[in-house]
Amino acid sequence: MSIKKILVTGANGQLGWELSQLVSSYPTFEFIFLDRTGMDLSKPDTFEKIINDIAPDIIINTAAYTAVDKAESEKEMAHTVNALAVGAIARISKQKGIRFITYSTDYVFNGVSSIPFLPDTPLQPINSYGSSKAEGEQLALQENEASIIIRTSWVFSSHGNNFVKTMIRLMKEREQLKIVDDQAGRPTYARDLASVTLKIIEGLNGGKNIQGIYHYANTGETTWYQFAEKIKALTGLSCDLIAITTAEFPTPAARPGYSVLDTHKIENELAIAIPHWETSLEQCIQKLS
Ligand SMILES: NC(=O)c1ccc[n+]([C@@H]2O[C@H](COP(=O)([O-])OP(=O)(O)OC[C@H]3O[C@@H](n4cnc5c(N)ncnc54)[C@H](OP(=O)(O)O)[C@@H]3O)[C@@H](O)[C@H]2O)c1
Fold first, then answer.
1. Which residues of the chain are under the pLDDT cut of 70?
2. Who is most buried in 36, 158, 193, 229, counting CB within 10 A?
3. Which residues pair with 6 in a beta bridge?
4. Containing domain of residue 124, as a range?
């Protein structure tokens, strides 16, 4: 396909922002970034006009309801933004021959496994946020079988709200921090995810057949506690970190004990080498300082 115009939602989120930082290296594509005021995902009946006016060749939907704990008490809003809106964009994109890329989460799985989750592992969402994203995946593929869904996990960036920035702030404010050490996963630098998204667009532009569900996360698995230890080492902060269990840190939304995504499919199909999370974390922390 010949791609000229690309519409990106969620311009001010971690991934949306990282995409905006990379697009100058792709001068043949015209990117239109919309934040919540330009395209509000809680209002699916407004999408048709917005998409008609812009007439993109690709829509990249980075916007999402990502407040995992709040989603337990705001189920309807999470469902509208993460499921109904995604289905509506997929339906319009199918009608107009637009390719659609959207993102999902490791929380669509139950978190009980000893081997990494594959793109076709059966879904069993662990919390309301995960349920809303799982339904969004289903609607995206039901409305437009050519949709591309990239599941990711533990996203961090120098922009926006995330574990890395929260840890740095708390390590500066407190002498001691308790961090959960019995949840394993793969951190993902939003910049790397943005970069692989642009590779997908180049692939589509070159006629490559890319569709369906993919997993992308940085390589190497860790726990939140080990992740925090690495942040501490890279920043030189001096806070005491104490490893605790999930049971000692109750949250409104359940969290998976094991949520490691298997990324071989995207590595093989796009012929990419994914950076290790520690390397990407170092880059992110360099940007922050
Ligand atoms: N963050 C993670 O750890 C994580 C893990 C797994 C999967 N994911 C998925 O990865 C994708 C990118 O996430 P991210 O980390 O970039 O998320 P993020 O930093 O939380 O950004 C989400 C963006 O969505 C926007 N948004 C929320 N509700 C909206 C609405 N009703 N209309 C329009 N925009 C709305 C927010 O706007 P405001 O800036 O105005 O609030 C924000 O800019 C999402 O699909 C997410 O579900 C993220």
1. none
2. 193
3. 31, 58
4. 5-161+187-219+261-275
State how many domains the chain has: 1
Which pLDDT does position 166 carry in this prediction?
Answer: 98
The pLDDT value given to residue 2: 86
Question: Is the residue at 129 inside a domain?
Answer: yes
Mutate to test the pocket of ligand 1, among 62, 132, 156, 259 (most ligand atoms within 8 A of CB): 62
pLDDT tens, 86-103? 999 999 999 999 999 999
- Is the Cα torsion angle 105, 109, 115, 121 positive or negative in sign? negative
Nearest atom within ligand 1 for CA of residue 151: 7
CB of 138 shorter than 6 A to ligand 1: no
Measure the CA–CA gap between 68 and 195, rounded to whole angstroms: 25
- The ligand 1 atom nearest the CA atom of 159: 19
Amino acid making up residue 40: D
Return the pLDDT at 178: 97
Task: Give the pLDDT of residue 193.
Answer: 98
Q: How far apart are CA 178 and CA 180, in angstroms?
A: 7
pTM > 0.85: yes
Does the CB atom of residue 36 touch ligand 1 within 6 A? yes
